[in-house]
Amino acid sequence: MTRYVCTICGHQYNPGAGEPAFGIVPGTDFSSLPKNFCCPVCGAGLPLFREE
Ligand SMILES: [Zn+2]
Fold first, then answer.
1. What residues does each domain of the chain span?
2. Global pTM?
3. Ligand 1 center to residue 18 CA distance, Å?
4. Cα–Cα distance between 15 and 25 in angstroms, integer?
5. What is the distance in A from the centroid of ligand 1 to the CA of 6?
6. Distance from the CA of 12 to the center of ligand 1, in angstroms?
């Protein structure tokens, strides 16, 4: 699965790790994230993430 990085703060979304603190279980691919998902660090929305 591809990792994505926030273009605002550089936070990396790793599908293998998910974002358990935000209810995203490990193994959740980027394309399967809820539409309202935003960067846990800076709050940027999905469109501001790019493929790493
Ligand atoms: Zn961010």
1. 4-51
2. 0.89
3. 15
4. 9
5. 5
6. 8
